[in-house]
Specification:
The chain contains ten helices and eleven strands. Helix 2 runs antiparallel to helix 4, helix 3 crosses helix 4 and helix 4 runs parallel beside helix 6. The chain is globular and about 60 Å long. It has about 300 residues and is an alpha/beta fold.
């Protein structure tokens, strides 16, 4: 029995299925989570299928979460999508069910769960969920196709990132056969509030293309920018031709910094791993606990880019 089939058999065996994703969700987190929920609702209408986590206001146009009680977890199947490690899972009740499945495309450094479907060659968790459903002959709805397509577009940067494969495009083409406004969705994903444009006054770029933006609490408060809103511009420095790799440092209310790392071609996830983080080779996240660590991370980016470009 393949992993695809094993997951389907587990789904068939449970009356209640609760789907989690990672904290501070992006379109792929919500797309894979809610896309899977919609697929299960279509194919197993008698089952109770719930999506849990904190509602993210900036992504409420994609989908919103369900109210999930502690009692719902009794004898339930729990599935976590798009989440590399357990500390990042949104809603810490993920281990309260009867059986746990992990579906993910990040490096499998934390092999949690009773059954794992991890494909690091996939562009996104949404691609994996779609591939799973299509391979097994399950029916998709327009609602499922919409959020799954969202997830793939989000994690491939509108099909610009190296993670975009022929298979990614084939799966996206299948999803486009369904009825949803993909053009409006793409415009929504590519826009951000005008107030966020102010953050680029703080952009630094060195002679080799290593860049950073530091968003202190003062900057965030002065322009009324939330942490979630700041994530909307994480890919924007990469549109500058002279920028190769970059980091966006966002000060948290507790005082530490959430660090979003991106790169066009040079691998930067090892930097993230050294600073309480991880992720994909060209798209990672880390944490910094002092101004000195901020400088250290940026220096590591500069050193990495300088080494790769000389």
């Amino acid at each position: 029995m393949t992993v695809f089939q094993a997951i389907l058999e587990k789904i068939k065996a449970y009356d209640t299925i609760i789907i989690h994703r990672h904290q501070r969700p992006d379109p792929d987190a919500i797309g894979s989570q809610v896309g899977l929920k919609e697929i299960l609702k279509t194919n197993f209408p008698d089952k109770k299928v719930l999506a849990t986590g904190v509602n993210e206001p900036t992504l409420s146009w994609i989908a919103e979460m369900d109210k999930v009680t502690d009692q719902d977890y009794e004898g339930a199947l729990v599935i976590v999508t798009d989440t590399a490690n357990t500390p990042r899972i949104d809603d810490d009740r993920f281990d309260k069910g009867n059986f746990l499945i992990k579906i993910d495309h990040h490096p499998n450094d934390d092999a949690y769960g009773d059954l794992l479907l991890v494909d690091t060659t996939a562009s996104s968790a949404s691609e994996i969920v779609t591939d799973w459903a299509l391979t097994l002959g399950l029916s998709l709805s327009d609602a499922a196709a919409r959020v799954l397509y969202n997830g793939i577009v989000g994690d491939t940067g509108r099909f610009l990132y190296p993670s975009t494969t022929p298979k990614t495009l084939q799966i996206a083409a299948k999803l486009r056969e369904y009825d949803f406004d993909f053009a409006s969705m793409a415009r929504r994903m590519d826009s951000f509030p005008f107030k966020i444009a102010n953050v680029f006054d703080n952009l630094e770029v060195d002679e080799n293309g290593a860049a950073r933006v530091i968003l202190t609490r003062k900057v965030l408060d002065d322009f009324n920018i939330t942490d979630a809103e700041s994530s909307a511009i994480v890919g924007t420095p990469g549109r500058i031709d002279s920028v190769e790799s970059w980091a966006i440092f966002v000060e948290q209310p507790e005082g530490h910094y959430r660090v979003r790392l991106r790169s066009k071609t040079i691998v930067i996830n090892e930097i993230a791993k050294r600073h309480d983080g991880g992720g994909h080779p060209l798209a990672s996240g880390a944490n910094s606990y002092s101004l000195d660590e901020n400088e250290q991370i940026y220096q590591e980016i500069k050193d990495t880019v300088a080494h790769a470009t000389h």
